[in-house]
Amino acid sequence: MLPTGGKGTTMRDKLTVILDMDPTPARGVFEECLSEDGDFEVLGAGEEYADLLVRELAPDGGEAQLEAVADMVARRGEREVFLTAPVYDAEVLMRLMRQGVREFFPQPVNHEEVRMALWRFKERREAALGPKRSKQGRIVSIFGAKGGVGTTSLAVNLAAACQTHKPGATVALMDMNLPFGEAQLFLDIAPKYHWGEVLGNISRLDATYLMSVMSRHPSGIYLLAPPSRLDDLQMATPENISRLLELMRQVFDTVVIDLGMYLDEITLKVMDISDAIVLVCVQNLPCLANVRRFLDNIRHADSGLEEKLKIVVNRHLDESDLVVEDMEKALGLPVFWRVPNDYKTTLAAINQGKTLLETAPRAPVTRSLGDLAATLAPVQTAEEAKKPLFGLKFLRGRS
């Protein structure tokens, strides 16, 4: 663990925050955003030092209040100062920002603006501690042998399981199931942005920009939605996708990608970058035939892809005209996992826009996907866990 620095600082693995605010709606927004992020600890009002001080300006504080803020900023040391106010003077605000106030939030305070400000704050603290480190996160691609086999459902619920089985884990779900991805419907969220916009601004791509375009689900999963128009795919090249995914690998512990069911140069590139390729199929002959075609294609494209392949039988039935053992014999490969059939439970979760962990946490299908997540994205060992603070794995601290 690293010292956070400054007077009264102890050896911590969390950033400390003092909220110098009355119990107002603005304070409630900050408390909610800080509680969502396991990298922060809110200290009591009696504490003298914290890494971050958030102060609410009184509308009738006058010049004395501004002088107090200026003095506080001048004495801040390594501490950063955020301000919020119900009313403010633009000229006074600019003066305070020049003196060192890092962020200002007009009221009513916007949740997403606070989340992004906290992310930028963490990034600045990590950048001050050391250089960038090598990639760490795992990328798991989910590919359907044919339509209707449950590829998106498996991807969404696998991401949710990865979020749960690793305390403090950061998990991203990227929807590349074109042309009409549905992951946002499975999670009942309405993304403002999509990854086509990221590729269109590839020169701006960094961790802060990436996080600003991702949508956060209440479970903690971050979704990067797909474009809904073909015009937004003009910048989708293997090179740009590679750049995006390498950054996502550095920011998140696990990246789950719904690749849909179409093979092209971009999906092959994603598979090449991935640590595991999950091929989803069901127990019928058309699906088995497609698995064979898939194997022929990846063997022709790159023999190394087969080594990452994990064949998963979804909606598995013990009694079927085509049993798993027959599939393995026909393919010459073992089936990696069998997800039990519970169509009713899974469909109910989809229609509610919720994950299986939310609607049926004890169901066999939920437990099976949890075990699959633990296998594909295992919990780090003590040695592997020696990573920088505050969840920013793309930056390395000093011990």
Q: What is the topological layout?
A:
Layout: E1 2-3, E2 11-12, E3 15-20, H1 25-36, E4 40-42, E5 52-56, H2 62-74, E6 80-85, H3 90-99, E7 103-106, H4 111-129, E8 138-144, H5 151-165, E9 171-175, H6 183-187, H7 195-200, H8 207-213, E10 215-216, E11 222-224, H9 238-251, E12 254-258, H10 265-273, E13 276-281, H11 285-301, H12 305-308, E14 309-316, H13 324-331, E15 337-340, H14 343-352, H15 356-359, H16 364-376
Parallel strand pairs: 3-4, 3-5, 5-6, 6-7, 8-12, 8-13, 9-11, 9-12, 13-14, 14-15
Antiparallel strand pairs: 1-2, 10-11
Helix pairs in contact: 1-4, 4-8, 5-16, 9-10
Short characterization:
The protein is of the alpha/beta class and about 400 residues long. It has helices spanning about 25-35, 60-75, 90-100, 110-130, 150-165, 185, 195-200, 205-215, 240-250, 265-275, 285-300, 305-310, 325-330, 345-350, 355-360, 365-375; strands at about 1-5, 10, 15-20, 40, 50-55, 80-85, 105, 140-145, 170-175, 215, 220-225, 255-260, 275-280, 310-315, 335-340.
Q: Name the overall outline.
A: elongated
| Approximate strand percentage | 15-25%
CATH superfamily of the largest domain: P-loop containing nucleotide triphosphate hydrolases
Oligomer: single chain
Task: Kindly identify the CATH topology of the largest domain.
Answer: Rossmann fold
Total count of domains = 2
CATH class label of the largest domain: Alpha Beta
Poorly predicted tracts of residues: 1-12, 381-386, 392-399
Q: Strand pairing plus helix content: what structural class?
A: alpha/beta
As laid out across the biggest beta sheet, the strand order is 10-11-9-12-8-13-14-15
Q: What's the CATH architecture name of the largest domain?
A: 3-Layer(aba) Sandwich
Count the helices. How many? Answer: 16
